[in-house]
Known about the structure:
Strand content: 5-15%
Oligomer: single chain
CATH class of the largest domain: Alpha Beta
Strand order of the largest sheet: 5-4-3-6-7-8
CATH architecture of the largest domain: 3-Layer(aba) Sandwich
Number of strands: 8
Amino acid sequence: MSPLANRNGRIAYKFEVLILSTFEELESRAFLEYSKYLLHNSAGKHNRKGRKIYTVGPTFPLTTTPAAKPTPNEERHPCLKFLDGQADSSVLFVAFGSTWQLPPEQMQEIAFGLEGSEQPFLCTLQPAAKTAQYPTGDVFDIIPPDCISRTKGRGLFVQGWVPQLQILGHPAIGGFLSHCGQNSMLESLSMGVPLLTWPSFIDQMMNARFVVDEIQAGLEITRDPRGSSVDRREVETKVRALFHSEEGKQPRKNATRIRELALQSVSQNGSSYKNIQALVTRIRGSVLTSS
């Protein structure tokens, strides 16, 4: 277990109030079981009476206006300009978070897999670790120029940061190939976008299993059994499956349903709306008691 996960596990036994940025309807079974545990478990030196979990998410805007024209002093991000020219629900968004540096060879396999899928795509990658063959680590020194030229107009490769939430909220997005970090998973599901799961470490593995097996809102990218890499054929096959096969219909339907649940949770009298009110009441009560 990583030091971060170990530390967070120890902290979880000590809390009186736990505030989570997810929403109750998304993970209802887990919350029910954990609430039972808190209610019935009385052992241990860190036991606290009245411990409570408050789910208050999603904590980001669920409505976006991606097609709106920018103001005179505002420059629209190139990613959004690209999406403006694509058909609704046609584009696969590819992103692996801000810290995961893919090996150069894996970047190339992804690029060729996206090309072979014939699906429109927006692929954002972080610079790779520098090697003797690729001393700069620059994405555009790694992805073959002929691959970029052959996908021009249909696909866009980007290096570094992109406005992920605006991208996921754009009507052109129809799928998200993701590392399944907590924020990325929640943003995608809350926007009604099904996932292709490609986890790397810590909570991402569990998040991916949750998406594929529990809520069935995504398909799994399968690694080569001889190692941890994914070849271009797997990328191509799973992209086609998500967008064009019977296998991809249920994840898309479930992602749409989850978006409706997310909207309900933050609406008046929704679960997160009521939890925020209850949390404020609890905080006020604690302040008055201690004063």
